[in-house]
Specification:
Elements (H helix, E strand, L loop, with lengths): L13 H6 L4 H13 L9 E4 L5 H6 L4 E6 L2 H7 L5 E6 L12 E7 L9 H10 E12 L10 H15 L8 H10 L2 E9 L2 H13 L1 H10 L11 H15 L8 E8 L2
Parallel strand pairs: 1-2, 1-4, 2-3, 4-5
Antiparallel strand pairs: 5-7, 6-7
Helix pairs in contact: 2-8, 2-10
Length: 264
């Protein structure tokens, strides 16, 4: 696939640019995902389904997407300052306020796993896409809890708890996603795993080490205390995380990325 009009320059460093704004574990995951979009078929108009605070779109794409949609007002308010979308709308994914065939691309990054009833949402994505349009999404996979450190001590109880604090309703493999998407009318063109066991454990530990970030966010509205290249902690984190950011796609990973298409 050729580079899309929203792609960043090839030399863009997604890891550092997200590390200065987000807790390290979230920055690592989002940076890996950001890189995937650079070679995907993103054609405007684009709907960002579950756009949140706009951070991901701002870091991933070279120019604003057409519409950012989220069910919550607070992240949309925060998103305004980032200007990562031309238009922001508060609405539910199961009731999209758009005409049939309004978009050529729907992006939904790490969103669908948080929605209990996915069928109406996928049906709406299919409806608002033009024939030939793409749904690009990612989600925790069927391996998400396989390599957790805490599971070695507390077993399935820890796995269930970790999914609960992550607000995950769906952690499925390729076959489950293919069946779900095909029922909605999509053809799945590509799927791949990403995030190795080592990367997952870095993410798991980050949930605990990131508690100071959460406190700082509540006090100041920012995740990172000193977001600068002069911050020695950020420089150390960058050196530690860079090998995980650069690792090849694993045969089985904690997350799954999908490219689905609406037929002509």
């Amino acid at each position: 696939m050729t580079r899309n009009a929203f792609a960043r320059p090839p030399e863009h460093d997604f890891l550092w640019n997200q590390l200065v704004e987000l807790p390290y574990f979230r920055a690592l995951l989002r940076a890996v995902e950001s890189r995937f979009y650079q070679e995907l078929p993103i054609v405007e108009p684009v709907l960002d389904l579950g756009s949140g605070d706009g951070s991901f779109a701002a870091h991933t794409f070279s120019r604003p997407l057409d519409v950012g949609l989220d069910p919550w007002a607070a992240p949309l308010w925060e998103s305004r300052a980032r200007r990562a979308h031309k238009l922001l709308i508060q609405a539910e994914g199961a009731r999209l306020p758009f005409a049939d065939c309004a978009f050529r691309t729907v992006v939904s990054n790490s969103v669908l796993e948080h929605i209990p009833d996915l069928e109406p949402v996928l049906a709406e994505c299919f409806r608002v896409l033009r024939p030939g349009g793409y749904l690009l999404f990612c989600s925790p996979s069927d391996h998400f809890t396989d390599w957790l450190i805490g599971a070695k001590v507390a077993g399935d109880a820890y796995r269930r708890w970790f999914n609960r604090i992550s607000r995950h309703y769906h952690c499925d493999g390729p076959s489950a996603w293919r069946a779900r998407l095909e029922r909605a009318g999509f053809t799945v063109e590509r799927m791949w795993y990403y995030f190795s066991p080592r990367a997952l454990r870095a993410l798991e530990v980050g949930h605990y080490l990131g508690l100071p970030n959460l406190l700082w966010k509540k006090i100041t509205g920012r995740w990172v205390v000193f977001p600068s290249a002069r911050n020695p902690v950020l420089r150390l984190l960058y050196r530690l995380l860079r090998p995980l950011y650069d690792e090849p796609r694993p045969e089985a990973g904690a997350y799954l990325f999908g490219v689905a298409r609406k037929g002509e």
